Amino acid sequence: MKRLIAMNRWLGWLTLILLAVSLWLVFNAPIDYQQGNSVRILYIHVPSAKMALFVYLALTVFSIWYLWKKSETADILVEASAPVGAAFALVTLASGSIWGKPMWGTWWAWDARLTSMLVLLILYMGIIAIRNGIDDPVKGARATAVLAIFGAVDLPIIHFSVVWWRTLHQPPSFGKTASAGPAITGPLLPPLLWMSLTFFLLGAYLILLKARETQGRRTLEHLEAQRRTHV
């Protein structure tokens, strides 16, 4: 953990550089012939959606690690990942609504992809609430880990929702499907790839930043408990 936290400053600078490059590519990319300038919203929406899923997947792995090994490092990473993942999920829903208004004519639709992503945000908020609502740190860690593992069933539903059901949401942005044909290609693709890489590094940076804060807070709480014991 200490080694990862020590690397976080360099990760932050790398993320900042990639963000500048990605934004330059986004604002210099051509407009879409159907979506116009609204297509630029997808350069935020798609990477944030991918990161909301990836962070929850990582959170699930950390939860299994904690329950298996009772590792404090794993528990710190669980606590640090939840607010970061919730932020990405919130950005996904907000940017999707902004894009959906001119494209679909509505801010929200109870589409399978949208609804399952909303469930993911609720799961993130539930994990945060349970963590903050249980005074016993061991019980809180166990409860959040169990909820995270059970909640992981939502991940394949989100990913395959546009394939399994006839939905209003567009097909996957990467790759192609038999029914929908190719996804984003041509000059619109490089900015999306660069922004996706930037968001991946941003997510890692924010998780480690939160982990450092969490570790420091727990150390102070432990020292304060020791001080009270010896008073």
Task: Give an overview in words.
This protein is 77% helix and 2% strand. It is mainly α and 231 residues long. Helix 4 (112-133) runs antiparallel to helix 5 (137-151). The chain is globular, with a radius of gyration of 20 Å. It is built from 7 helices and 2 strands, in the order ααααααββα. The longest helix is centred in the last third of the chain and has 42 residues, at 189-230.
Large-scale geometry: globular
Task: Tell me the fraction of residues in β-strands, as a range.
Answer: under 5%
Please tally the β strands and state the result.
2
- Which oligomeric state applies? single chain
What share of residues is helical? over 70%
> What's the Cα radius of gyration?
20 Å
The low-confidence runs, each spanning 5 or more residues with pLDDT under 50, are 177-182
Order of helices and strands: HHHHHHEEH
Structural class: mainly alpha
